[in-house]
Every structure is written in C-alpha cells, then in structure tokens.
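Lecture 7 notes: from sequence to structure.

We start with a single chain of 147 residues. Read the sequence below before looking at the structure.
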Amino acid sequence: MNTHPYLRAFLAGAFVPTLILPLLLLGSILIRVEFQIGPVERGLIFPMALVPSLWALWNMLWLYSHTRTHLTIGSHGAILPLLLMPCGAVLASCLGILAIEANGVVWFRSLHVSYALVAPMFLAALVAYYLAWKYIVGFLNRVLGIA
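Now the structure, written as tokens:
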C-alpha cells in the first residue's frame, strides 16, 4: 500500500495559512472601515491564493530534504519569510500597493512605515514562522506520520 507521504505533507503545510489568512482578511476589512485606509484587501487577495500552496510545497520540500540536511522543521519554516517577504515587496511595488522610499515604505499611498519599524516586524515574522512551523506544522506532520 502506498502511504502518499508528500500528499500528507502538502495537507499539513496548507493547514495553518488556510485558517489564519481569512482572519487577517477580516481584520484588514475592519481596519479599512474604521480608519478609512485605501483598498487593503487588494494586498491580501493574491497572498490568500498563493501562501497556503507555498507553505504546503515548503513542507513537502522539508520532507524531501530532511534526511540530507537534518534541519529542524522550525528552522526550515523560519527560512520561508526570507523568500516570501522580498518577493511580496517586489510584487506589491509593481502592483502599486507598496512604494519604497528613502526613509520607509508607503502602503496604499496613505500608510507610512519607517524602516526602524520594518526591521522589528521582519524579526517578529521570523519568530512567528519558526514557532508556527515548530509547534503546529511539526505536530501535524507527527499526527500524519511523516515526521
């Protein structure tokens, strides 16, 4: 019997962002209504379609490479924002959602964020990804028998 470990890895990887991204969309809509910021949901539609699949493929890559690299699942997950955030920033700037300036970034032509705030946010994302991958995706991988 074929146990399909990569299919199980795909499903375990897609689980977390599939649950969290709709909550982020709800929060962004509430922020838009309250603070009258531009079309915030424009910046979330594409990630909502892409990020669960990227997490799933990243988990499949961990399953494939774990025997050679011996990298923990948390460390492997913490690498993902190093790829997603620069790609997302380039895509957002090409779509006019993000403007990169000398002293910070401007979201939706109305929300200015200085680089002094971007760096801690990036580090917080690394920590969040590490913890999500270590505890949630790692748990799901163990439950599904692939870790």
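The mean pLDDT is 87. Keep this in mind for problem set 3.
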